[in-house]
Amino acid sequence: MSKFKFATLAYSTINLGDDIQTVATLPYLNHPSISFDRDSLALQESEDKIIILMNAWWAANPENAFPPANCFLPVFIGFHIAASFTQYFSQPKCVAYLKTHAPIGCRDVFTMNILQQMGVDTFFSGCLSTTFEKRESEPVNGKIIMVDTARVDYLIPLLLKKEAIVTTHAYTGDRALRENAVNDLMHLYRTTASLIITTRLHSALTCSAIGIPVVFFFNPEDPRASSAEQIGLPLYQYQLSKPPWLKKYLRKLRLISLWRWYEVLYFKIRYRFFYPINWNPDPLDIEKHKSILRSKTAETIEAILHRAS
Fold this sequence. Notes:
Layout: E1 4-10, H1 16-25, E2 34-37, E3 49-53, E4 56-58, H2 62-65, E5 72-75, E6 79-81, H3 86-89, H4 92-100, E7 104-106, H5 109-117, E8 122-124, E9 143-147, H6 158-162, E10 165-167, H7 178-192, E11 193-198, H8 201-210, E12 214-216, H9 226-229, H10 244-252, H11 256-274, H12 287-308
Parallel strand pairs: 1-2, 1-3, 3-5, 4-6, 7-8, 9-10, 9-11, 11-12
Helix pairs in contact: 1-7, 1-8
């Protein structure tokens, strides 16, 4: 039996943003030789002790994912609990596991507050996708890249859309080719993008880290929003919040399309007359943030290795 192994998280979701989070962990792992599906981490068995970074959204199938099996030595950086699964993570077995491996580096303030209410020691780490290396130079003939912007297409100027590359983080292809798909996406960002327009969190965070200007449409009330606010990335809201009673009412009376019409009108007026969108933003300078988070991640891994030795 080897003393330690390093592993990455793998995914069978339709969102390549999950895989981008795994790519972001690679600089901190010593030649990871194996990967485990996030949503079956609790079901694994191994005689080895396996270091794995928990930089991810938890989880599509929490019963099979958390707490992870005893073979894992978890590094809690960039940890996010889905709002719909807070009750599951409040179970004694989950709370005990989190306390054992505290402090927990949380991707967002929402997760940090939830865990603190459970008595778990935490800190606000942000996401490791904000630590990608900045590109050395901008592309000579860069292109605007629009990532999953169908819901905000009406807000984007025609002049910008005319020559833009349209792409998506949705992936429904062969799982064996998934790694190639995310590598191709990252290469496109790094070598081609002069501006990113997106509704995807891990497109926005990744491209901001690379040094690409970003226009990010996202709900400020989303539990994940603070990971963008942490690096100073502006958020342009494009959906109005609906209380549960209103959602029920709209569904019952089949008025969803009417609500959507109202939403479109509201945001057209908002951004045209009151809060104009900056379509020519500067790239963010987050090098200090990167340095702090990289150091904290390396220190956390070193401390775990020391305790386990």
